[in-house]
Amino acid sequence: MNDHILIRYGELSLKKSNRNQFIKKINTHIQKALKGFDKLTFEARGLRHYIILNGEDEKNIIPILKKIPGIYSFSVVARCASDIEEIKALALNVLKEKDYANSKFKVDTHRGDKQFPMTSQEITKEVSRELFKNLPGLKADVHNPDFVLNIDVRCEGTFIFTDVHMGLGGFPAGILGKTILMISGGIDSVVAGFEVIKKGMNVEAVHYASPPYTSDMALQKVVDLLEELTIYTEHQSINLHVVPFTKIQDEIYKNVRDDYGITIMRRMMYRIAEKLANKHNALAIVNGENAGQVASQTLESMGVINEVTKLPVIRPLATLDKSDIIEKSIQIGTYPISIRPYEDCCTVFVPKHPQIKPHLDTAIEEENKFDYNTLIDEAIENIQTIRLRTGRKYEVFKKEELF
Ligand code: ATP
Ligand code: MG
Q: Residue of 12, 167, 170, 398 with fewest CB within 10 Å of its CB?
């Protein structure tokens, strides 16, 4: 009976001219994500799209749909012919399947088929009468119902449902193009990655690793975090570019004024991210920076750091409270991985008193004390790229093999 899933798309009203392209992209994603379910078929009617279950259990499908960017919401719906007797019978069956006892409900009818011989009010009345007659104990409350019985009368049939599942929202995966995601092993950057993927961006991830100061386990953490994000992406995969960052950090440590160490280190990270962006045709850099959170994230620091690139830098978490970021990371399942106790390269070299108001002139003067261009080129030449895919666990191999 409940054999269809009706998909509703998000944010499409903003982009009327691109609407068809958006919908096509989401539907391709849906079909790809549901590839393993052989019984399913798909039906498109204008802006309405249905997955027809053909006996497949909806419980297996719902969690997958909840991870597809661009789906605003969806409902499991029952379908019958647009005929009042059939509609009454189906509405009754839908309510019988639901645990309606002691709950208040209302009927909401939408008549898309203007040829249908009754008005929506008449349909609502007639169906309600049938329900009250057959289901003693059922209560109506049009102002404050516990649930709504939706009846959608259309030319191709009538669709009845009570529950609406919220999807991710956002834009179809990948529609906005590619970005470079700076990913550490911390709580924030993976959430930032989730946010941009949800908003229709593909990511190439970059991680700066500083063995032996940072361990295999720290890198494994980054791998495990990113693996959690692959499910949301268009191709169910993310490339992780691991940059050998030790030499650059050593040189900074040796040459640069202690309090400017972090500023310079982050300028190097941005420079490498920009070069990677050019190499991979990415249009922006994404990171987990959050205004005011640490010394390198004051507005003054961000300004001096940002100065090395002309690319847009997207900071989805810029204004969130830490507690909100943590909540999001719990929701997407990355929190337990992020709090594993391994060092990342920033924590290893943290000076006692980092500059919270660095000056650009001083930063440039300090970084010119070593030949960073050569080191950056060398680091980029020695990048190791790991392709992470949904459902395949990647074990970080031994350090000797990696660098
Ligand atoms: P996170 O929780 O993501 O580690 P954070 O609050 O610890 O962020 P920082 O350590 O100052 O803040 O880093 C700010 C941002 O810089 C991170 O969110 C991440 O995007 C990027 N970043 C930091 N360390 C690395 C690294 N080793 N490799 C790649 N990107 C990094
Ligand atoms: Mg960090």
A: 398
Inter-helix orientation angle 188-198/322-331, to 10°: 70
Cβ–ligand 1 contact at 207 (below 6 Å): yes
Pairing of strands 284-286, 71-80: unpaired
Residue 68 Cα to ligand 1 midpoint, Å, equals 26
Pairing of strands 177-182, 147-154: unpaired
The pLDDT value given to residue 13:
58
Q: Which residues contact 147 (CB under 8 A, 6 or more apart)?
A: 98, 100, 103, 105, 162, 163
Which ligand 1 atom sits nearest the alpha carbon of residue 287? 20
Q: Is the CB of 208 under 6 A from ligand 1?
A: yes
Instruction: Name every residue whose Cβ is closer than 8 Å to that of residue 96 and which is 6 or more positions away in sequence.
Output: 135
Highest mean pLDDT of the ranges 91-105, 205-219, 374-388: 374-388
Dump pLDDT digits (tens) for 7-48: 998 766 555 677 888 899 999 999 999 999 999 999 988 778
- Residues with Cβ within 8 Å of 277's Cβ and at least 6 positions away in sequence, in order, are 179, 180, 283, 284, 285, 311
Rounded to the nearest whole angstrom, what is the distance from the C-alpha of residue 228 to the centroid of ligand 2?
18
Question: How many angstroms is it from 208 CA to the middle of ligand 1?
Answer: 10
DSSP per residue, 42-85:
EEEETTEEEEE-TT--HHHHHHHHTTSTTEEEEEEEEEE-S-HH
Q: Which atom of ligand 1 is nearest to the CA of 214?
A: 27
Does the beta carbon of 370 lie inside 6 Å of ligand 1?
A: no
Distance in Å, CA 181 to ligand 2 centroid? 14
Q: Whose CA is nearest to atom 12 of ligand 1?
A: 289
CA 358/CA 316 separation, integer angstroms: 24
